[in-house]
Amino acid sequence: ANAKKNIAQNNLENRIQTKLTDGLNNIDLKASDLIVISGMGTNTIIKILKPYLELLNNIIIQSNRDLEKLRNFMFANGFDVKNEKAIYDDHYYVFIHFFKDDSKHDKIDSWLGPIIKNSEDSNYFSFLLNKYKKVSTKVPENDPRKNEIDSRIKILESLIEKK
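Given the sequence above, the corresponding structure tokens read:
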């Protein structure tokens, strides 16, 4: 109902079609379609997309968690990032536009995003830095994850310094 209301308020009824369904079931998908999935966790998004990846070329995703896992999944399935943006509205929301392309990515691309990592806006990096610092204080020194967390802290500090 909210989607239909927003579509009508923006006079987009002739361009946007809404359907209530379980994931992408019972939707006649075309390669030219742009799919938007928002407000769910990565595991749910992957479950929805997995059976349809060969049919899709353009997908905009806003996941509430595990963006690194999401990017790795999409990269492994022949997608690249066309655009991505972190938007703050009492919480950071990251929107990622994926498209069919077999580009190769490194670990930082999967973690921060190939476009976001080059962003001029350091606020999102500061947010992540604070988050990793909090986690770092709770992880014991002998925990194997400690080195990865501390490495990410250094990378974020370096990115912020460059901004």
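The CA atoms of residues 29 and 162 lie 43 Å apart. Try to locate this feature in the token string yourself.
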